[in-house]
Specification:
The complex is a heterodimer of chains A (395) and B (213). With 395 residues, chain A is α+β, with helices and mostly antiparallel strands. Chain A is built from 11 helices and 11 strands. Classes of the chains: A alpha+beta (395), B alpha/beta (213). The interface between A and B is medium-sized, with 20 and 21 residues.
Chain lengths: 395, 213
């Protein structure tokens, strides 16, 4: 019969301090539950808010304009070169580029299928600032088709008023197939171009055309070689940076933060959930510490018996392993219990969170299960190390 | 296995204490199969010597080696292997688990490195006259009975050397003879050696190697 803990169990004094033992089990359960469920929530938030996230590579993008007041109304409220240079030189600003607008009249109609005609404005910006740039977004002089990137907000607005005007509603897919006739009025007379919507932008509220077209048309239709922008787009690590806000306010620039709010909400939610997770880790550490006190006390109370076992030839490795192993069932029970409760909470969250079902799985993410297993292994391992250390101490 | 003692002197000894000793400061080897009787009056360091050899204490100068390996370099893990397979001991202070029964005490050693089947416990207890004590707690046994428990326990494992530290101090002549016969038989079975320490020379070791501490 191989040796097991049963042989040496009577030599351990386990009668005292039962409360701290049960408290530590309870604490471990709560800690694991907190950590696992906050991990799962973090993943849920990430999945739910993934598609609409306007942040690109961890940066915020937003536009600024000069505040229009009664005093400066009617004056030139565009940004001058030195102002742009000053904005760019701010340490909190990664990059800033102008939004150049058309210096001539533009009218758009959609032909006979959609009897709709409107005056229009066009803008252009560095491609690097656009969230969706298809390869077809280029224009060269002589080209009759102008590729257009359309704000998805504008499409939404259009779809709101279209039914009342007897116009068809358009999906983001079908809008690219609508033939738009762009009429340009300028010094060269009226010219017709074909407009083709090649992409929708979540980030920039505008109707964007390639920079090459804007420069060419402003020169040829508007007769202007250099246009001062009235809007500047800013790329920054954090649109909420107080230093940045202070600078913009001191310059009396108006900050259009609508588009960054969503990213911020996600960030705040994830921060809250992360904080919960960190708290969970803290509780786990405390629970393991409490349990280690219990173990230390148990070993101290059984010191003479353990010393004698070692003297008789019991191996310290075997003793540590055997003692640590006795808690594996308890830890398995605690961790699996926490995993099951996490799974139930997650299931309830998916059920009541008003999201489309296919966005979230009813099952826990594999990484949550992996962390559960890892915690199990960690608990057993720390016990093993602790018992071994204590055994070597009493020899 | 061979045990070698080279110039062993307890660090707590004065120079004059080792004068005339056949053990302290000398080179001595214990070879498997050869019994050695260590005779030492009180205070001459008899128990210390046994503990040094068993690896329980390290407060000595010189080198003790098993198979030419200095035991001061051994980890507790290596000692545990030797104590399971090569070395057994009967302590002067017996060192039993007071709150366990006699049988449990012996089983704790037997199961660690079984040499005999469990029935052997009953057989030996019978020979030494403590078979009716097997299910009693060790602490309720008399000192003489406890000595016999410690003897049986030490014989449950395989060994090359059996260290004995005044194992018969509380036994009457009749029980001494029975115990010695049992130990001798068991050593013979394993071709093992006794390193038997006592206060005075015992008749059992007439004609054998005797070291005076």
């Amino acid at each position: 019969m191989p040796l097991s803990f049963k042989n040496i169990a009577p030599l351990f004094n386990t009668s005292k301090n039962k409360i701290s033992k049960w408290l530590s089990y309870f604490g471990l359960g709560i800690g694991v539950l907190l950590l696992l469920s906050s991990m799962q929530m973090f993943i849920n938030i990430n999945n739910l808010l993934k598609e609409n996230n306007p942040r690109k590579n961890g940066f915020d993008f937003f536009s600024i304009t000069k505040v229009i007041t009664n005093e400066n109304m009617g004056k030139d409220n565009t940004f001058k070169d030195d102002e742009l240079t000053e904005i760019k030189s701010q340490p909190t600003i990664e990059n800033a580029v102008p939004l150049i607008s058309n210096q001539y009249r533009v009218k758009a109609s959609a032909g006979t299928i959609i009897p709709f005609s409107t005056d229009l404005f066009l803008e252009s910006i560095d491609d690097a600032f656009i969230d969706t740039v298809p390869p077809s977004f280029i224009w060269e002089p002589g080209q009759q088709t102008i590729p257009i990137i359309f704000s998805s907000d504008f499409l939404e607005l259009y779809n709101v008023f279209a039914p009342s005007q007897d116009l068809p509603q358009l999906s983001s897919k079908t809008i690219s197939s609508v033939n738009i006739i762009v009429e340009i009025y300028g010094t060269m007379g009226v010219q017709n171009y074909k407009g083709n919507i090649v992409a929708l932008s979540d980030r920039i509220n505008s109707i964007l055309v390639p920079k090459t077209f804007m420069e060419w048309s402003n020169l040829n239709f508007g007769g202007v070689a250099k246009v001062n922008p009235s809007r500047i787009y800013i790329k920054t690590k954090d649109a909420n940076n107080p230093q940045l806000i202070t600078f913009l306010e001191s310059k009396n620039y108006h900050l259009n933060k609508d588009k960054t709010k969503f990213g911020r909400i996600k960030k705040i939610l994830q921060n809250i959930v992360s904080a919960l997770g960190v708290f969970g880790i803290l509780v786990i550490v405390l629970a393991l510490m409490l349990f280690s006190f219990y173990l230390q006390l148990m070993i101290a109370r059984s010191k003479e018996n353990l010393q004698l076992l070692l003297t008789l030839g019991y191996s310290p490795n075997w003793l540590s392993k055997t003692v640590a192993k006795t808690w594996i069932p308890v830890y398995i029970f605690v961790v699996i219990g926490a995993v099951i409760i996490t799974a139930l909470l997650h299931y309830a969250f998916v059920k009541i969170s008003f999201v489309e079902r296919n966005d979230l799985s009813y099952f826990l993410h594999w990484s949550v299960l992996a962390v559960g297993l890892l915690l199990l292994a960690l608990s057993v391992f720390t016990n093993y190390r602790l018992v071994k250390k204590e055994l070597y101490r009493i020899v | 296995m061979q045990i070698l003692l080279e110039q062993i002197v307890p660090t707590f000894f004065e120079v004059e204490q080792i004068a005339g000793s056949e053990v302290w400061g000398k080179k001595i080897s214990f070879t498997k199969g050869e019994h050695v009787h260590v005779v030492a009056p009180s205070g001459s360091g008899k128990t210390s010597l046994i503990h040094f050899i068993y690896g329980l204490r390290r407060d000595y100068e010189g080198i003790i080696s098993y198979q030419n390996e200095n035991i001061k370099n051994f980890s507790l893990e290596i000692f545990s292997t030797h104590r399971q397979k090569n070395l057994s001991i009967i302590f002067q202070d017996l060192r039993l688990f007071a709150d366990q029964t006699v049988r449990e005490n012996i089983e704790l050693k037997r199961q660690l490195s079984p040499y005999h089947p469990p029935q052997k416990i009953d057989e030996m207890a019978n020979r030494l006259g403590i078979s009716d004590k097997l299910n009693r707690l060790a602490k309720t046994c008399s000192y003489g009975e406890q000595q016999r428990i410690a003897i049986i326990r030490s014989l449950m494992q395989p060994f090359d050397f059996l260290l004995l530290d005044e194992p018969f101090s509380n036994l009457d002549e009749n029980n001494r003879i029975k115990a010695f016969e049992l130990i001798e038989e068991e050593c013979k079975q394993r071709n093992a050696s006794m390193i038997f320490a006592d206060l005075k020379e015992l008749d059992f070791f007439k004609g054998q190697r005797i070291l005076k501490v």
